[in-house]
Amino acid sequence: MSTTASTEPDAVIVTHAVVERPVSTGRRVGIGVALVVVGVLCLLLGAGAHAHNATFDLTQGSEFVKIPNVTVPVAATAYVIGVLVIALGAYQAVRGLRANLLTVAGSLTALLFLFVFLSWAASGGQGSTIDVVGVLTNTVALASPLILGALAGVLCERSGVINVAIEGQMLAGAWAGAMFGTIIGRTGGVIAALVAGALMGWLLGVFAIRYLVNQVVLGVVLNVLSIGLTGFIYDAIMQPNANAMNNPQTFNNLAIPVLSKIPIVGPLLFDQNLIVYAMYLLIVGIHFALFRTRWGLRTRAVGEHPKAADTVGINVLRVRYRNVIMGGAVAGLGGAFMTLGSVGSFTKEITSGNGFIALAALIFGRWSPRGAVGAALLFGFAYELQTLLSLVSPPVTIPSNFLAMLPYVATIFAVAGLVGRVRAPAADGEPYVKG
Fold it and tell me: With 270 labelled, which of 180, 264, 279, 427 sits at a CA distance of 20 to 30 A?
């Protein structure tokens, strides 16, 4: 990393030299073996298929053009894809692909394996139909709070403050959204959720930035505080008076004319509720602001080299306070989605670990908005897979408890296994004391 500074505050430039390092022999062979294993799994799935064909439904009926169902031969498809993936793995183990090609090949392999797995699942009994648009729509709905939580983490950690309190911020937003949404209406509930999340972010900022409390421990404490406080209010006020205190009206889907009629993409992206549309704006806005604006330049400078930023006149502590509070508000909106955009009421610990899953998505996404969104969608699909497999009756019964733990297992691997292989902002979690 190189940091260049001039006498102007906005002249702090943070750059990273891109150096393509050779892949070690062990890692090259390990990746190749992993690809071979995926290919073998494809062959096994093909051999275990019951019905000859699997059907994928690509339309919901309201689009301009009805796309016909796609029917594929399960065994033949699995065998062809399995052989190709095994060949790719063998080549990777012997010769090795370049880093950029390996990323593309890994992503393509994952998609092909998923296609084979869904085809196998749909072959149970006499064969079932996979509602592709429905699956993708449910994935977006399940991933929405994760995306908002991950964006909250981006805002905080890009400026150097670890946010383990995403869970507590989302829980506070869910509580405020339900209670105040019932009392003063849905719009007021969303505003209350933003305020509740921002207050949790302010607490994180005060103790982490001013009093230099260990940020990981502080995040855990704030999560416990949020669980206890919202649980007490629920038991004391909301549950005994459910109709008056815990019965908000959820937002209805708002179809955007023309765009909602586009095949596949229309129902998926343009027939959502207002909180999801706000999430779209936040994804684009945060990514653009982080990499294309003065605020983003200062944020990245503070997260990478706060001392250099301070020497050119950037108020490091102010930037961190502001970003942590904004991050808390975004996480609060994620909590509001659970009560005002989905469930329609608040229950104790309604977030059910989604804040920690969002933290894992942040790490998977390498602390970037786009990467965090992609990782959150992956976790959302893991949730949706539970429902899908219970509907299509796959050839082999998969315990529901096993499927339910998949997102949490992924979280453990992300935090414990991948964190050492990706680079967090250099000053993430490091308190700054002005000299």
Answer: 180
Contact in structure between 314 and 298 (CB atoms under 8 Å): yes
According to DSSP, the residues that pair with 255 across neighbouring strands are: 271
pLDDT of residue 107: 83
Cα Rg, the chain, nearest whole Å: 24
Same domain (yes/no): 93, 142? no
- Report DSSP letters for 230-258, one per residue: HHHHIIIIITTTHHHHS-PPPPPPEEPTT
At residue 71, the 3 state secondary structure works out as strand
Domain end point (choices 104, 127, 150): 127
d(CA 36, CA 163): 38
Tell me if 426 is assigned to some domain: no
Residues 184 and 88 in one domain: no
Would you state the pLDDT for residue 127? 53
Half-sphere exposure of 268 (CA within 13 A, CB side): 16
| Among the listed residues 253, 191, 233, the one whose alpha carbon sits nearest the alpha carbon of residue 346 | 233
> For residue 271, what is the domain's CATH number?
1.10.3470
pLDDT for 9: 47
Q: What pLDDT score was predicted for residue 16? A: 46
Residue 433 located in a structural domain = no
Are 145 and 107 in the same domain? no
Write down the pLDDT at residue 430.
92
Tens digit of each residue's pLDDT (9 = 90 or more) over 88-146: 999 999 988 887 888 788 889 988 998 999 999 888 755 578 889 999 999 999 999 99
**Spatial separation of the C-alpha atoms in residues 185 and 247, rounded to whole Å:** 10
**C-beta atoms surrounding 327 within 10 Å:** 32
Do residue 114 and residue 154 come from a single domain? no
Which residues of the chain fall short of a pLDDT of 50?
Answer: 1-9, 11-20
What are 43's two structure tokens?
A: 């062959």
pLDDT at 243: 93
3-state DSSP assignment of residue 13: strand
**Structural domain span for residue 198:** 135-418
Backbone angles phi, psi at 344, to 5 degrees: 95, 5
Enter the tokens of residue 295.
């605020």
In a domain, 3, yes or no: no
Let me know if residue 8 belongs to a domain. Answer: no
Please check whether residues 123 and 142 belong to one and the same domain: no
CA angle at 413 for the pair 407 and 415, rounded to the nearest 5°: 100
State the pLDDT at residue 358.
94
